[in-house]
Write a structure and sequence with these properties.
The protein is an alpha+beta fold. The chain is built from four helices and eight strands. It has helices at about 5-25, 45-65, 70-95, 185-220, and strands at about 35-40, 100, 105-110, 115-120, 125-135, 145, 150-165, 170-180. The strands form two sheets. A four-stranded antiparallel sheet has the order 1-2-3-4, with helices on one face. A hairpin with a 5-residue loop joins strand 7 and strand 8. Helix 2 runs antiparallel to helix 3 (about 70-95). The longest helix is centred in the C-terminal third of the chain and has 38 residues, at about 185-220. The protein starts with a helix and ends with a helix.
């Protein structure tokens, strides 16, 4: 990937978490249409993010006191520290406002403002509650992607056909297993299984109707 493309993607990522701050303040969610089910995942990281934000605020005050006699350095560090605090809050805001979404025919798995994966429900072979603590990312070529929150995943989705996952800087990979986290993992499993079954039933009804139409056409031709 070229440097210009990488910079564009990073700029887009910055814009997404900045926009998320506004949606968070308005208590609204991004990309959840009426009738779709949102699966939240921000709770697992909330304590860590807020704790780190508090540390950043304390550091900002301390650095301001230490650099009180150096106005230029004080101004530069103040801007950097405030941006860091804003970025930490944006990190949490993106997770809150961009939940996973179970639609009528698609599972949309998201990792805050960083990345997302759209999975057709008809490609889901199995869904299970599967609590894992992620120590290191899966090796390239494993066809497994892990979107951990707070160092853990709690759901595993196995696919009948691979889907394409795109990383933050644009690298594409084909995956057959997706692991991610939901705050209420067991409820998320139930919702997903229910919607996958509904999609399978619709496909079966459609196939049956097509077969009936075909037999009717043959009978009319024979008559």
């Amino acid at each position: 990937m070229s440097r210009e493309s990488a910079l564009r993607r990073l700029a887009a990522h910055e814009a997404r978490w900045l926009v998320s701050l506004g949606w968070w303040a308005a208590r609204r969610r991004i990309g959840v249409a009426p009738g779709e089910r949102a699966l939240g995942y921000a709770g697992a990281q909330a304590a860590f993010v807020y704790g780190l934000t508090f540390v950043c605020v304390v550091e900002t005050v301390a650095v301001g006191v230490l650099l009180a006699d150096h106005p230029v350095a004080h101004a530069v560090m103040l801007v950097l520290d405030l941006y860091t605090v804003l970025m930490m809050l944006g990190f949490q805001a993106a997770a809150v406002t961009r939940p996973h979404v179970v639609g009528t025919d698609t599972l949309w798995v998201r990792d805050g403002a960083r990345r997302d994966i759209r999975i057709p429900l008809e490609r889901i072979a199995a869904v299970r509650h599967d609590l894992r603590f992620v120590r290191e990312p899966e090796k390239d070529g494993s066809e497994v992607v892990e979107l951990a929150v707070g160092g853990q995943t709690s759901l595993t989705v196995e696919l009948t056909e691979p889907v394409v996952a795109v990383r933050l800087l644009g690298r594409r990979e084909s995956v057959r297993t997706v692991r991610f986290h939901a705050d209420d993992a067991r409820a998320a499993v139930a919702v997903l299984r229910e919607q996958v079954a509904a999609v399978a039933a619709l496909r079966a009804d459609g196939a049956g109707a097509t077969a009936e139409d075909g037999r009717g056409a043959v009978a009319e031709s024979a008559g």
